[in-house]
Write a structure and sequence with these properties.
454 residues, mainly alpha, two-stranded antiparallel ribbon, globular, disordered C terminus, membrane, xanthine transmembrane transporter activity, transmembrane, Uracil-xanthine permease
Length: 454
């Protein structure tokens, strides 16, 4: 067998190697996937790590069914919705005044259910009109600045978390940089996980030495608290909860689907290029969008975060040269199994917020940086006034409306987030202003790099 030829049927390697390859994919997605519930917990909403892992696995399997078992993609939890979770956590008007965090999470999940269903609308439009016509309304001059806004609006929370213990945050940050730049083999594609592991070990040592942090009440508290770990069982069901629906929550969360749908399209292009198979044509972009959207809605309906296709696992495809979707499905099964181990979830949940802050320095910055890359690689011409105007209005709306825009309709208080306002303004201006010369598919390199996660 030619070692340079990709392996499209991993069964030729034998079951033990397939399991190891699946474990590698699970590790690649693990660090980023579990960070979403950890970050959301920092906002004050009790998103479960167990539920997140369970629906990452179930969502991936569901996606493979919808895509005819052809696409080697893993669906992990989406960082794009973090801004929405933060906004929901801070809502304190109308029905959300003094609302229990568990209920707020349910309403946030209801908004994500609707966001997932928006994928079905785009899938139907693409099926009927074709990819090129649809993407003309969502050019990089719109999506790029929106992605930049997502990262920049989250940046303050990274600093706030890191400030609780700067030495620990810097250990996490430095570890990620070292493994990302100088790491070899598998370690190079899991720098986030290594940053978490190394800084967690450092936190254990610091905690044993009596290091304390300042609590919310102004008193010194231990760096780590293992009370919940001791109380958790080894095996247990994920804490599912049904989503609830409200217009405000829907308008906070649903518009974020604009960014994640662009991410999906970019990832499908990247996976197609990596495996030398045109998945946008067969099984079709409309099928993969349906799989991604329904996986997101299914997860949120029972208290989980939004799912999204993961670029990390595309990196594993390149590294291993094994392109068999069966290996991805093995990784999904591992994720489901981890969802039934509460003690492991609580060990992860005991992570100090400073580690989260250090890791977030990279993650949030990368979100914005990839938005810039999206603009550069698609060769957006900022010598044109229309492009400057669109980008300028999006950035000011996304960053300026930090508290959103609240208005009342028929006695109901409705809040549009800065990101939602920015997305609506960008799409509207792009449709109205003359001179739109973007055509999807002309610049394949740019189209393949439209994702918003590292």
């Amino acid at each position: 067998m030619n070692p340079n030829q990709p392996i499209r049927d991993a069964r030729t390697l034998g079951l033990p190697k397939m399991l190891i390859l699946g474990l590698q994919h699970m590790f690649a997605m693990f660090g980023a996937t579990i960070l979403v519930p950890i970050l959301v917990r920092q906002y004050g909403l009790p998103l479960s790590i167990q539920t997140t892992l369970f629906f990452a696995g179930i969502g991936t399997l569901f996606f493979h069914v919808c895509s005819k078992f052809q696409v080697p993609a893993f669906l992990g939890s989406s960082f794009a919705f973090l801004g929405g979770f933060a906004t929901m956590a801070n809502l304190d008007s109308g029905m959300y005044a003094a609302m229990d965090p568990q209920d707020k999470l349910s309403y946030a999940c209801g908004g994500i259910v609707v966001a997932g269903l928006l994928y079905l609308i785009l899938a139907l439009v693409i099926k009927l009109a074709g990819v090129k016509k649809v993407m003309r309304f969502l050019p990089p001059v719109v999506t790029g600045p929106i992605i930049v806004c997502i990262g920049l609006t989250l940046a303050p929370s990274a600093v706030n978390n890191a400030s609780s213990c700067w030495p620990l945050a810097l250990i996490a940050l430095a570890t990620i940089i070292v493994f990302n730049i100088w790491g070899k083999g598998m370690f190079k594609i899991i720098p986030i996980l290594m940053g978490v592991v190394v800084s967690y070990i450092a936190a254990l040592i610091m905690n044993a030495c009596g290091v304390t942090v300042m609590g919310a009440d102004g008193t010194a508290q231990p760096l780590m608290d293992f009370t919940a770990v001791a109380q958790a069982g080894i095996v247990g069901l994920p804490p599912f909860q049904l989503a609830k629906f409200d217009v405000t929550a829907i308008l906070v969360m649903a518009p974020i689907a604009l960014a994640t749908m662009m991410e999906h399209i970019g990832d499908m292009s990247a996976i197609s290029a990596t495996t030398e198979r045109n998945f946008l044509q067969d099984p079709g972009l409309h099928r993969t969008l349906v799989g991604d959207g329904l996986a997101t809605s299914l997860s949120a309906m029972f208290g989980g975060p939004a799912n999204t296709t993961y670029g990390e696992n595309t990196g594993v495809l390149v590294l291993s040269n094994v392109h068999d979707p069966r290996v991805i499905r093995i990784a999904a099964c591992f994720a489901v199994i981890l969802g039934f181990i509460p003690k492991m979830a609580e060990v992860i949940g005991s992570m100090p917020s400073a580690i989260v802050g250090g890791v977030s320095f990279i993650l949030y910055g990368m979100i914005s940086a990839i938005g810039v890359r999206n603009i550069v690689e698609n060769e957006v011409d900022f010598t044109k006034s229309r492009n400057l105007i669109i980008a300028a209005v999006i950035l000011v709306c996304g960053l300026g409306f930090s508290s959103g825009l609240t208005f009342h309709v028929a006695g109901t208080s409705i809040t549009l987030t800065g990101l939602a306002i920015a997305a609506l303004a960008g799409i509207l201006l792009n449709a109205i202003l003359p001179g739109n010369d973007y055509e999807f598919g002309v610049n394949s390199e740019g189209d393949q790099n439209r994702g918003i996660h590292a």
